[in-house]
Amino acid sequence: MLKVDNITKYYGDFLAVDHLSFEVKSGEIFGLLGVNGAGKTTTFRMIVGLLKPSSGTVTLDGHSIDYSITDKIGFLTEERSLLTKMTVKEQCVYYGILKGMKEKEVSRELDRLLTKFKIQNYKDKKIKELSKGNQQKIQFITAIINNPKLLILDEPFSGLDPFNVEMFKNEIKELAEKGSIIIFSTHRMEHVELFCKKLVVLKNGQTVLSGNLKDIKQKYRKKNIEVVGDIDENKIKQIDGVISVNLNNLTYQIKIADESVANKVFEVVSNGKNITKFSVEEPSLNEIFIETVGETYDK
């Protein structure tokens, strides 16, 4: 288990992270979210031991994270951290040895992963000769080549097309199934909803939202109604508690203040024609994030 217990970090007088706590068990994928400057990068660096908290502790399976444990950690940073004049093999051997692996072990695991990601022919190519997407694959491979106990993924899908995003998703799920503790950060909220059962949202270093995603959605008062059919849009807009009505790809999307408004909407919709769908949906994580943080999560 990874336990982040009440950590705080100051840079001089600037408070970057303020009393942050959460736990992630083996096999869980945990979302750590926030806009730029929220404190995510500082938190990642404290977790892996690159920064020392001003107060509070970080432990992995009950042990403080130091050089005796870092070999069990993988970290994919948002920024490129590859040495572009090296070949793919040289780069991966370099990182693998830094993580305490033998060269033969690295080569064996590298061959497996290159084949899995369909870039086995790039083994002897220099990093600078690869596309942005294939560089991202190599950076991901360097983060997981040691089969980490703890894996931190900061914007892992950057530069990837939908096909390769799917490959990454499958690998991340497999790592979790094998027992890795995974902390996941991305601006694509649909990916968070796909992977993460628990999350923390930071704003200015403080926790503004935390817990199980399912519980967070249930507690959020605003709901969405989806309707397919011919309805009187103006009458629905006049209902007290209806926030907005939009038509998108033949589906009316009606945002309501809370679930009690749904019955009023249904009464109006039931008088329409050719109604083939009426569904009350939980809000998306993106909606909740925007309302909680006060801004979108675009980079």
Describe this structure in words.
It is a single chain. With 299 residues, the protein is α/β, with parallel strands linked by helices. The protein has helices at residues 40-47, 88-98, 103-116, 132-144, 162-177, 189-195, 213-219, 233-237, 261-269, 285-293; strands spanning 2-11, 14-24, 29-33, 55-60, 63-64, 73-76, 150-154, 181-185, 198-203, 206-212, 223-230, 242-248, 251-256, 273-281. The strands form 3 sheets. The chain has a 6-stranded mixed β-sheet with strand order 6-7-8-3-9-10. β7 (150-154), α5 and β8 form a beta-alpha-beta unit. It has 10 helices and 14 strands. The longest helix has 16 residues, at 162-177. The chain has 2 domains: 2-216, Rossmann fold (3-Layer(aba) Sandwich); 221-281, Alpha-Beta Plaits (2-Layer Sandwich), CATH 3.30.70.
Write the topology of this structure.
Blueprint: E1 2-11, E2 14-24, E3 29-33, H1 40-47, E4 55-60, E5 63-64, E6 73-76, H2 88-98, H3 103-116, H4 132-144, E7 150-154, H5 162-177, E8 181-185, H6 189-195, E9 198-203, E10 206-212, H7 213-219, E11 223-230, H8 233-237, E12 242-248, E13 251-256, H9 261-269, E14 273-281, H10 285-293
Parallel strand pairs: 3-8, 3-9, 6-7, 7-8
Antiparallel strand pairs: 1-2, 1-4, 4-5, 9-10, 11-13, 11-14, 12-13
Keywords:
299 residues; Rossmann fold; globular; alpha/beta; 6-stranded mixed β-sheet; 4-stranded antiparallel β-sheet; 14 strands; 2 domains; Alpha-Beta Plaits; single chain; 10 helices
Give the helix level as a range of percent: 25-40%
User: Can you tell me the overall shape?
Assistant: globular
Largest sheet, spatial ordering of strands: 6-7-8-3-9-10
Question: CATH H level of the largest domain: which superfamily?
Answer: P-loop containing nucleotide triphosphate hydrolases
**Rg, please?**
23 Å
